[in-house]
Amino acid sequence: xxxxxxxxxxxxxxxxxxxxxxxxxxxxxxxxxxSVIVVDAMSSDATIRLARQHHAKVxxxxxxxxxxxxxxxxxxxQSEWTVFMDADNRIPKDYLQKIKxxxxxxxxxxxxxxIVPDSRLKKDKITATLxxxxxxxxxxxxxxxxxxxxxxxxxxxxxxxxxxxTDIPWGEGEDMLGxxxxxxxxxxxxxxxxYTYSFRRLKKIGTFKMLQKISQIEIIKMVKGDLTKNDAHFxxxxxxxxxxxxxxxxxxxxxxxxxxxxxxxxxxxxxxKSFKKNIDPWKSLFR
Length: 287
Hints:
The protein is of the alpha/beta class. It has two domains: 6-198, Alpha-Beta Complex (Spore Coat Polysaccharide Biosynthesis Protein SpsA, Chain A); 204-285, no CATH class. The protein has helices at 19-27, 47-53, 66-74, 95-106, 122-137, 155-161, 172-182, 200-205, 207-224, 229-233, 243-246, 254-261, 269-279; strands spanning 6-12, 34-40, 57-60, 81-85, 110-117, 150-154, 187-197. It has a seven-stranded mixed β-sheet, with helices on both faces. Strand 2, helix 2 and strand 3 (57-60) form a beta-alpha-beta unit. The longest helix is centred in the C-terminal third of the chain and has 18 residues, at 207-224. It starts with 5 loop residues before the first strand and ends in an 8-residue tail after the last helix. It is found in: Cell membrane. InterPro entries: Glyco_trans_2-like (IPR001173), Nucleotide-diphossugar_trans (IPR029044).
C-alpha cells in the first residue's frame, strides 16, 4: 500500500446502504492524500462489493467486534495518521483538508471534532449540541469522552497504546484516551470542521429510551467498573446495519438490571431490599 498522510479505517457489517455514501464523500475531498481500508466482519449483503467498487482496500475480519476490526485495519496503516470512521458518517468536502491544516500547526496526538445530526429535527439538533458541549468540557479529563465514530490518532501512538481494548463492549474510545492521558499524549476536540453523526440508533430505539440505557450503563460502571460482553448486549446490540433492518431491542427489566449489577457479588437479602427501596424513584429507567 502506498504511504499516505491519512489511512482511514472503516469497520463494517451489512452496511450496503450507508457505506457508499461515506465513500462518495471521501472521493470528493479537496485533500486526497489518504487511503481507505474497509474492515468487514463477513457481511451477508453487498457491503464488500460496494467497497471495492469505490476502490477501498477490503480486509476481512473473522470476528464481529468493532474494536477488533479497527485494530485489524490499523495493522495495515502505513500513514502518519490513522483515522477511524463509522460507515454511517457524512463529511463535508473540506473536512480532511481542515484537519490536516490543524495537525500541522498545532501537533496534537489524537483528535476528534464536533458533530451535526443527520436530521433537521429540533430535538436532534439540541441533542447534538448537548453532546458537543459534553465532549468539550470533558476533553481535559483523565478519561475524555469521545465518540468512536471519528478518531484521528498518530499511528505510532496507536501502536504504543496497544490499540482498542477488544474485551470491553462499551466506551472503548474513552478507555483508550484514558491510557493516552496517563502517558501524556495530547488530545484535542475541534469545534470545526464538524462531521455528520448518524442518529439512526436514536431513531430506532427512541431518544428517551437511549438516555435510559446510558443511565443504566453509568450506574453499572460506577458499581462494577465495566460491563461484560454478555451484559452489554442488553444495552447496546452491535449487529451493524442489520440491527436497523430487523434488530429487536433487548428488554431490560429491573430484575435483570439487579442481576447484572450484583453478578458474582454476595449480597444479603436485607441489602438487596434496601437497594430496591432506594432505586424506587428511578423505576422509570426500566420498562
